[in-house]
Design a protein that fits this description.
The protein is of the alpha+beta class. The protein has a single domain, classed as Cytidine Deaminase, domain 2 (3-Layer(aba) Sandwich), CATH 3.40.140.10. Helix content is 18%, strand content 36%. It is built from 2 helices and 9 strands. It has helices at residues 15-28, 90-99; strands spanning 10-14, 34-39, 45-49, 55-57, 60-62, 74-81, 102-107, 115-118, 124-130. The chain has a 7-stranded mixed β-sheet with strand order 1-9-8-7-6-2-3, with helices on both faces. The protein has a two-stranded antiparallel ribbon with strand order 4-5. The protein is globular, with a radius of gyration of 13 Å. The N and C termini lie close together (12 Å).
């Protein structure tokens, strides 16, 4: 599902990776899920990294930065909002700056239509789901 954004770059995410993120969000609901994004050699987001000692809470989630392997090669983050809000909060914008240039928010009820992509400054990005 392409999302209309302000930047010319379109992010490509593998359907399997997006489904994993949506499934994780449903399973942690009403708490928030968080993970990191990794691209394959074609430049598509193909993996969601679940980091040990991450915190999933009501209204927040966080990653223990000391647990991210230096070889993770992550390009951004994904986290869930247990509400219909798909826009980044002030706290989200702070965390975006730690994780990379692509940050996804999946929001309730966690379908493929309930996903938004942002850069590290909170500007909306376009994305497409690929097989």
């Amino acid at each position: 599902m392409p999302e209309t954004g302000t930047n010319a770059i379109t992010i490509r995410i593998k359907r399997e990776a997006l489904e994993f993120a949506l499934h994780a969000a449903r399973n942690t609901y009403p708490e928030e899920f968080i993970g990191l994004l990794r691209k394959n050699t074609q430049g598509e987001i193909s993996e969601i990294l679940v980091i040990p000692r991450s915190t999933y809470g009501r209204g927040f989630s966080s990653i223990d930065l000391t647990m991210i392997p230096y070889t993770s090669n992550h390009c951004g983050s994904v986290h869930s909002h247990p509400s219909r809000a798909g826009r980044p909060s002030r706290g989200d914008l702070l965390s975006f700056s730690h994780f990379g240039s692509i940050n996804l928010i999946v929001f309730y009820p966690f379908t493929q239509n309930d996903v938004a992509a942002y850069d590290s400054e909170g500007k909306k990005l376009e994305f497409e789901v690929v097989e």
